[in-house]
Every structure is written in structure tokens, then in C-alpha cells.
Design brief:
transport; globular; mainly alpha; ATP synthesis; CF(0); transmembrane; 227 residues; 7 helices; two-stranded antiparallel sheet
Length: 227
């Protein structure tokens, strides 16, 4: 039976029941629950240090009003990193390769930043659609362009995350298939290809973390414009 390379991106199901909900909820179980003790083990200490450092770095350019988003953005960052990293394991499903899931994260959060800007500072929020000093003849054109660019933001967030992870998974599968095909015929070439596969896997680990960080960072920049 011929198996398509894109079958790995199909949502798994068991007895007709989609398992994507389990794939989304399971990563939270892997993290230890912080206790009220003054002295914790090394894992909880490292986890707390990472979350604090990331939150401080993310909230640095925002004013006090934007700090209310710290818990949401930090949780989203950890969630995306965990799902992306678990998706690199063999025989696993990566929910973030689904554009519908990424858009489900991007659209509500982007819309919330826009609504906050329109409610708190409507003049400044609308002023972003027209740069200062624009010639009169270009005003209608620039307003249309800036409005389109504003509505493209959530689409860019979702497509960027989906495309990067999908491309990485496809490359890993293609090169792994080449290693198995070349092993009986040209062992030397197969070993070199396996080395490339190992380096590509390391690159994908970095991409999985970077793309999660970029997703949350761009959301924080959109929030910074409207807070």
C-alpha cells in the first residue's frame, strides 16, 4: 500500500473518535506542579526560572496595563513549545501542523488586542492606519493598504507556524526515506545522508522553539501597539 508523505498530518482517530483533543491536552500532564515549599527539586526550580525569565523579557516593552497578559502569553509559549517538541518524536502527531488550530489561537488573541486598542485609545489605534505626513492623494490608498495589512496579521501568524513545522516534518521524512532506500545499495552515501538527517533534526528542534517564541512575541508586539 502506498503511503503519502502528507498522511502524517492527518488528524488521528480511534473508532471514529478524533484524538486531537488528547494530543492537545496531554502535554500539560508532563509538567510538574509547583508546590508551596520554599525548597523545590531541580526540575521545578529550572521550570520556574525559565518561566520568570521569559515573562520578564516579554513584558519588558509593555506598560503596566499589558502585564495582565503575562500568564496567558507565558502559558501559550510553554504549550506551543511542548507540542512542537513532542511532534518531533517518532509515531507522534503534531497538532500545530494544522492551520485550523493555529488560526484558532491567532485570530481570537489578535482580535482581543485590536478590541483593547479601540476601547482604550481609539484615536491612536485608528491613527496606525494613516502615517503622519502622508500626501492627501495617497491617503485613501494607504488606509486601504494598512487595513489589509492589519487583517492579514492573524493569517500570517497561523500560516508561519504551520508552514515552518510542516516543511520541517516533510524534510525529515524525505531524508529518512532516502536513508532506508540507500542503505542496501550505497552504505557510504546512506551514512552521509543519515548525518544530514541528524543535523536537520537538531535544526528542527531549534525551529520548534523559535517558532513558538516568534508566535508569542508577535502577539506581544500587537498588544504593545494597542495598550
Amino acid at each position: 500500500m502506498m503511503v503519502s508523505f502528507f498522511d502524517q498530518f492527518a488528524s488521528p482517530s480511534y473508532l471514529g473518535i478524533p484524538l486531537i483533543a488528547i494530543a492537545i491536552a496531554l502535554p500539560w500532564i508532563l509538567y510538574p506542579t509547583p508546590s508551596s515549599r520554599w525548597i523545590n527539586n531541580r526540575l521545578i526550580t529550572l521550570q520556574g526560572w525559565f518561566i520568570n525569565r521569559f515573562t520578564n523579557q516579554l513584558m519588558l516593552p509593555l506598560n503596566v496595563g499589558g502585564h495582565k497578559w503575562a500568564l496567558l502569553l507565558a502559558s501559550l509559549m510553554i504549550f506551543l513549545i511542548t507540542i512542537n517538541m513532542l511532534g518531533l518524536l517518532p509515531y507522534t502527531f503534531t497538532p500545530t501542523t494544522q492551520l485550523s488550530l493555529n488560526m484558532g489561537f491567532a485570530v481570537p488573541l489578535w482580535l482581543a488586542t485590536v478590541i483593547i486598542g479601540m476601547r482604550n485609545q481609539p484615536t491612536i489605534a485608528l491613527g496606525h492606519l494613516l502615517p503622519e505626513g502622508t500626501p492627501i492623494l495617497l491617503i485613501p490608498v494607504l488606509i486601504i493598504i494598512e487595513t489589509i495589512s492589519l487583517f492579514i496579521r492573524p493569517l500570517a501568524l497561523g500560516v508561519r507556524l504551520t508552514a515552518n513545522l510542516t516543511a520541517g516534518h516533510l524534510l525529515i521524512q524525505l531524508i529518512a526515506t532516502a536513508v532506508f532506500v540507500l542503505m542496501p545499495m550505497m552504505p557510504t552515501v546512506a551514512i552521509l545522508t543519515a548525518t544530514v538527517l541528524f543535523l536537520l533534526t537538531l535544526l528542527e528542534v531549534a525551529v520548534a522553539m523559535i517558532q513558538a517564541y516568534v508566535f508569542v512575541l508577535l502577539l506581544s508586539l500587537y498588544l504593545q501597539e494597542n495598550v
